[in-house]
């Protein structure tokens, strides 16, 4: 499907539904599980979730044509050391992200920015649709890592698939 036909806000709504379930699983764990070291993802549930929220914030800023510097993000381990304030802040940010995706305009609109996230600055050329897609795929990637961490502590974290959460299902026969 060409990006011009994609309703990015609709797919973000699915992300919010699956994110809510993921955060419920995390919230139900003892606080030490949130910061426990795991050999996957970014090393802890906190680091992985905070990184995901920070990336979402950065992608929305870039969609709006704003320059992003690491220190500007409201989502860092230092600013969000505990789960509940972090989860609340990320939930409050969701309408801003959804609106940016709903008002994306032409997904083929070219965007260019300098990323300073790696070892050296890189010029990135993409499209508005490319950033919108990356915002969503990035969360799914890290969500799977957090789910694997939760499974290691005994949480049956599964069934966040799009079809499970979004398709209408009715019994037959």
From TrEMBL:
Carries keyword Plastid? no
Keyword Hydrolase among UniProt keywords? no
GO MF term set: metal ion binding
Sites binding a divalent metal cation sit at: 51, 138, 142
Q: Which domain of life is it from?
A: Bacteria
| Pfam families assigned | DinB
Q: Which InterPro entries match?
A: DinB, DinB/YfiT-like
Q: Which residues form the signal peptide?
A: none
Which keywords accompany this UniProt record? Metal-binding
UniProt similarity note = Belongs to the DinB family.
What protein name is recorded for this chain?
DUF664 domain-containing protein
Q: Taxonomic classification, please?
A: Bacteria, Bacillati, Candidatus Sysuimicrobiota, Candidatus Sysuimicrobiia, Candidatus Sysuimicrobiales
């Amino acid at each position: 499907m060409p990006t011009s036909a994609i309703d990015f806000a609709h797919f973000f709504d699915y992300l919010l539904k699956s994110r809510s379930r993921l955060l419920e699983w995390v919230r139900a764990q003892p606080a030490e599980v949130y910061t426990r070291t795991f050999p996957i993802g970014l090393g802890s549930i906190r680091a992985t979730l905070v990184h995901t929220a920070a990336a979402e914030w950065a992608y929305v800023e870039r969609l709006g044509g704003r320059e992003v510097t690491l220190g500007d993000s409201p989502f860092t381990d230092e600013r969000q050391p505990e789960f509940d304030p972090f989860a609340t802040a990320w939930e409050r940010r969701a309408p801003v992200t959804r609106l940016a995706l709903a008002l994306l305009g032409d997904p083929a609109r070219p965007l260019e920015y300098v990323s300073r996230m790696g070892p050296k600055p890189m010029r990135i050329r993409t499209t508005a649709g490319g950033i919108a897609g990356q915002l969503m795929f990035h969360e799914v990637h890290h969500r799977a890592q957090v789910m694997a961490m939760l499974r290691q502590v005994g949480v049956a974290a599964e069934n966040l698939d799009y079809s499970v959460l979004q398709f209408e299902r009715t019994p037959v026969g």
